[in-house]
Write a structure and sequence with these properties.
By secondary structure, the protein is α/β, with parallel strands linked by helices. It has a single domain, classed as NAD(P)-binding Rossmann-like Domain (Rossmann fold). 29% of the residues lie in helices and 25% in strands. It contains five helices and twelve strands. It has an eight-stranded mixed sheet, sandwiched between helices. Helix 1 links the parallel strand 1 and strand 2. Helix 2 packs across helix 3. The radius of gyration is 16 Å and the shape is globular.
Length: 203
């Protein structure tokens, strides 16, 4: 059982990660701007917090075994988040990543493809910059988990594949449910295999 701080606990991915952590018996400080949107679950303490306030966030993160960040890249700041984790003295930092920085061919990223949706471009670009920043961080045990191209509500099947820096595809495209993504992330929390690495999950 770990003491985990989850930033962005009320979001699409965050809420599924929160449930997975709770179901597995972890103690979770569930951080969100609006705690009214955080599910009532065993071992979960809803806590109001601002991902863009380094000092107050660091105070909330202190004493935890790991921090999981599930916030939109375009409305957060990697230096603020990493700084808060450092200030809190927490060594493990897991990030809900994006798919845009995954490669579809050697040297070709998903975000650079002509059919990449314009609506997601700013968020995907910010996610790539977040990952680039983490790759220069050597004093934290960080992990960045990228979903597949379609990251959507679905079933918790437990049947998926893991990869590294290349987009995982199947006959129907490239996809992973929030629920199965949560399994892969909590598996990594419990049994670390990708220290200071990005990896990806998909069907």
């Amino acid at each position: 059982m770990a003491q985990v701080a989850l930033i962005g606990a009320s979001g699409n991915a965050g809420s599924r990660i929160l449930k997975e952590l709770s179901d597995r018996g972890h103690k979770v400080t569930a951080i969100a701007r609006d705690t009214g949107r955080i599910a009532t679950l065993p071992g979960v303490t809803p806590t109001p917090g601002d991902a863009n306030d380094r000092a107050s966030l660091a105070a909330l993160l202190k004493g935890h075994d790991a921090v999981i960040s599930s916030v939109h890249f375009s409305v957060s700041n990697v230096e603020t988040l990493v700084g808060a984790v450092r200030d809190a003295g927490v060594k493990r930092y897991l990030v809900v990543g994006g798919a845009g920085s995954l490669e579809v061919a050697p040297g070709q990223k998903l975000i650079d493809q002509p059919d990449f949706p314009e609506a997601y471009r700013a968020e995907a670009a910010a996610g790539g910059e977040f990952l680039d920043y983490l790759r220069g961080v050597d004093d934290l045990d960080w992990t960045f988990l990228s979903p597949s191209a379609e990251f959507v509500p679905g079933e918790r099947t437990g049947r998926f594949r893991l990869g590294k820096d290349s987009l995982l595809t199947h006959d129907g495209g490239s996809s992973i449910s929030f629920e199965d993504f949560a399994i892969a992330l909590v598996d990594e929390l419990e049994t670390p295999r990708h220290a200071r690495q990005r990896f990806t999950v998909g069907y």
